[in-house]
Structure formats: structure tokens, C-alpha cells
Amino acid sequence: MRTSQPCTVKLCPDGEAKYQRVKGFFEGVLRHSKGEHAGKPFVLLPWQQEVFRNLFGVLNAEGRRQHRVSYIEVPKKNGKSTLLAGLALYMLGWDGEPGAEVYGAAADREQAGIIYREAASMVRASPSLSKVLEVIDSRKTILHRGSGSFYRVLSADAFRAEGLNIHCLLFDELHSQRDSRLYSALRYGGASRREPLLLSISTAGFDRKSLAWEQRCYAERCIADPATDPAFYGCIHAADIKDDWKKPKTWRKANPSLGQTITEESFAADAREADQSPSKLNAFLRYRLNVWTTQDVRWLSPDAWARNGGALRGDLEKREWFAGLDLASTYDLSAFVMVSQDVDKTWDVFPVFWVPSANAAERTTRDKIDYVGWIRDGFVRATEGNVTDYDVIRQDIVALSQQYNIKAIGVDRWNSTQLTTQLQGDGINVVGFSQAMSSMSSPSKFLENLVISEKLRHAGHPVLAWNAANVAAPPDHNGNIRPSKLHSTERIDGIAALVMALGVQSSVPVTVEQNWDIQVI
Fold first, then answer.
1. What does the CA dihedral 395, 401, 406, 409 come to, rounded to 10 degrees?
2. Collapsed DSSP state (helix, strand, coil) of residue 432
3. Is residue 513 domain-resident?
4. Which one of 74, 167, 324, 518 is at 20 to 30 Å from 211 when CA atoms are compared?
5. In degrees rounded to 5, what are phi and psi of residue 72?
6. Are residues 423 and 331 in the same domain?
7. 36-95, pLDDT tens digit by residue?
8. Are residues 410 and 375 located together in one domain of the fold?
């Protein structure tokens, strides 16, 4: 796939002059403000030059910019934030538009503020810019009083705003937009301007129903045939899904700034991590190679899970145990999973499952889920009727707590208030465990590390293995993960309960050393 619409025609003198004006501003006025390049001129890389040649040098019959809308997609760490920051400053006071209104937008105001802070740092790092631009941090605004122009960060509810007379709109991380309301509301805000520019820049996402995917597909069409929409400019730097993601050739294909804003050594380190974990591979493909993935990429490798299938060992009844309880809403699988750390810092896992007997028979026939066989072989406990019998679950947990030294049980309180109260009345330590990313991410990563390092023993329990094969753990924008029932292919109750058990274990004081033994990454 061609990565951008090339500037195939020689620029006319006016177009060349306009391009050189932008290039001269970046390389002659702007200074980097961070890292090893701090204080040095902003020298445009070849791919950035190509973008600006198209955006500013290609003119229409009236001698104005031909491209009014642009979609640019590059992986993280290729300098897109500094590029947008510099462009915001150029459009603010050097594009020849009196009273220019330049706006930065993103999924939230904090994300949009990243570009603003970079632009503000550039102003402060440049004596010439500091003389003509005023930075107002409290309002995330930069003023160019000489032309009556400003650059401002839009608030999250800007789609309700009216009357914006937009000269330039910069959308950062378009894939993070929850819907198209903000984009649609601002799309035509520059209709009265002579040469408005709407530029969206993003890394790859996962939602093929999103605004960013729509824009990416349209960009691909325009890249393949620029006549599709002469006013639209597309630029995509990405690996193809068939490319070997382990090869430096693929890294360079997707990352036009490799060797400048990011080193090949760091890429190699990230690739080695990705090779050990499906969830890290998912993130590597998206953020490093700009490949659009699906969130239902399997989290735990079945092969790695199977390698942890050893029998439980030791005097289990004398050990300290922690548990997680994941209850079915009414009619499907409920899971109670106990974990215990051995003296060698390996872990034993003891799961218990329940399912309504009527539902078990129905699903065995309809969905080929072997509940009937699992019940027969003792891997699932059936309760009478077609809904979950919490009284049976309570009795079984009480019996287990009398046999094993269960220090604490973590539960999601939203559907377990009555059972929690009853178990606490039975003298069992039951604690609420939030399903939020902030609570689930650390124990989820810990579980991932236990599986990879083969420090888990689950005795090959088939229901837990089925849950492990189903589970997806899509990362958020900060790399946090948790089991997602929404994006998983089937039931994952046992893994959700296992994560809660590990999370409770890390927060409750016990006699065995309970700090994370494997590095959480």
C-alpha cells in the first residue's frame, strides 16, 4: 500500500514559496524543547516534508491550498505531537490569515492539552516567538496579538458550541473519539475562511465502526486515486498484517522517524516482550506498527496456559488461601477461584464452578459447551432449576472455608450484596473488589507474568482452561489491562475470579511473603 499521496507534480512557484515558508518557520524559528534535541532547530524529516509539500504547496486554480481536510496516521513516538504543536503555531500567526482561530481537539481536554503544552514549551524555548506570542496556561490559550489570532484547546463539550470561525482545526488521536459528534460539529466551522485546514492525526485503533476507521478507509481511497477527492489529503504509515512484525524492515516501513525520535534498540526490546505475550503483541502491533487490531485478540496463550497444568502440591489445607467470586447474573456460569502461594513462590489455583442444571443441558445441546460432561466428571457443580441458586453457592463456600484457611474473598458487590452479607455472617472475610481498570490491571498483569514464567499450577482444570482460551484483555491508552466480558468470545468467569483472588492477595496482610514476586510490567 502506498503510504501517502505523493506530490507527483512539480510545485508552481507560488506553491513552492508557500511550502518553503512553512519549512523555514519550522527549521528557522522553532526549537525543540525536550530530550536530546532540546534547544536545537526543528529540522523536518523527509516524511514531514512530504506532508507539508502536499498541504501547503499544492494549490488549486485560484492559487489557494487544494487540500482542506487531511488524515495522517503514524505509530506512537514518531514525533506527531511536536509536529502538530509546531503547525498550530504556524497557523496561528504565520499563515497570513488575520484573526485566525486555531483549535486543538481530542477525546478529552487533557489529551488535547498535550499538543498545547508542547506548543507552549516551543514558544518559551524561542526568543523570537516569545516576543510576539503570549502563553496563557490557565486557559490553555496562546495569543498572537499582532494579528488578533489565537490557538486554544477545546473542551470536551465543544460539540455544543456555535459560532466558531475556524482557520485550523487539529484533531489528535482521532481513534479515541467516542463518537462523531465533535468532529461533525466542527467539520464546517471554517466555511467562511479563505483557506481552512482540518487535520486529523492518529495511531491505529481497533473499532471498525469508529470515526477514525471511516477516515482511514477514505484516506486509503484517496491515496489510491487522488481524484476521488482533490481537497482531501491522506498519509498512512503502517505495516501490513501479513508483514513479519519481528523484522527491522517492517519496523522501518511503519515508522518514518525510526532512528530519529525512536531507536531501533527500543523497538527490539518491545518486540521481545511482544513475543512473550498476546496482549503485548496486540499493543505492539497497534502502537508500534500502526496495525488496526480487534480487541478480541486472545489474551492468554493456550500453549502457555497448558504448560502451567501441573497438579497442586503440598499440604493444601495448612496453607493460606485467597479467593475471588464471580457470580452469574441469573442463568449461567458462576466461579469461585482460590489461590495460594507456595514457599518457592509458585502458585496453586483451585477453581469451583456452578451452573443451573437446566441451562447446562440446553447449552450443551445448542452451543456444544460440555457442561453436562463437566458436571458428570465433577468439574462443575449443578444447581436445581434454570437460575443460579445462591444458597448452594453459599453452602459450598462455607464448607470450603472450613476445610481450607481462606483469609479473604474478593467480590464484585454490584450483584452480590445479599450473598456477601450472608457469608460475612458466617464468619468469612468478604471484601469488595472493584472491577475498574485501576483495581484489575495490576493483578491481570501479574497473572499474565505467572503464566508466561510457568509459576502457576491449575491441574489442567478444563473449565478454567476454556475460560482462559476465551478471555480478551484489551489495553487502554495507558497500557492497563483487565479481562473484558464484552470483548471476549465466551464465558470468562473463572479468569475474572482468579484475577480478583490475586488482587485480594496483594492487599491483605498474611504470614507468607505476599509482595509481587514477578515484575509487573
1. 10
2. strand
3. no
4. 167
5. -120, 130
6. yes
7. 778 889 999 999 999 999 999 999 999 999 999 999 999 999 999 999 999 999 999 999
8. yes
Q: By residue range, what is the domain housing residue 91?
A: 13-237
- CB count within 10 Å of CB 54 equals 23
Q: What is the rounded radius of gyration, in angstroms, for the C-alpha atoms of the chain?
A: 28
Closest CA to 109 of 84, 141, 63: 141
336, amino acid identity: F
350 sits in which H/E element: strand 347-356
**Residue 1 located in a structural domain:** no
Closest CA to 357 of 378, 335, 380: 380
Contact between residue 97 and residue 167 where contact means Cβ atoms under 8 Å apart = yes
What is the domain-level CATH number for residue 94?
3.40.50.300
Instruction: Please indicate, yes or no, whether residues 320 and 256 belong to a single structural domain of this protein.
Output: no
Looking at the domain assignment, is residue 515 inside a domain? Answer: no
What is the C-alpha separation between 75 and 287, in angstroms, rounded?
A: 5
Residue-level pLDDT at 518: 28
Q: Which residues contact 500 (CB under 8 A, 6 or more apart)?
A: 324, 325, 326, 337, 410, 411, 412, 433, 440, 443
Report the C-alpha gap between 167 and 424 in whole angstroms.
Answer: 63
Residue 519 DSSP code? -
Same domain, 264 and 311: no
Grid cell, residue 452, equals: 508466561
pLDDT interval class at 448 (50, 70, 90):
very high
Could you tell me if residue 334 is inside a domain? yes
Q: Are residues 494 and 442 in the same domain?
A: yes
What is the pLDDT confidence band of residue 219, given thresholds at 50, 70 and 90? very high
pLDDT in tens, 480-512: 899 998 888 788 999 999 999 999 998 765 443
Per-residue model confidence (pLDDT) at position 441: 94
Average pLDDT over the chain reads 88
Strand runs labelled E in 160-207: 168-172, 197-202
Q: Where are the beta strands (DSSP E) in 231-346?
A: 232-236, 320-326, 334-341
- Residue 185 banded pLDDT, cuts 50, 70, 90: confident
Q: Are 233 and 358 within one domain?
A: no
Rounded to whole angstroms, how far apart are CA atoms 515 and 521?
Answer: 15
Model pLDDT for residues 306-324, shown as the tens digit of each residue? 999 999 998 999 999 999 9
> In angstroms, what CA-CA distances link 85 with 28, 39, 120, 410?
15, 15, 8, 46
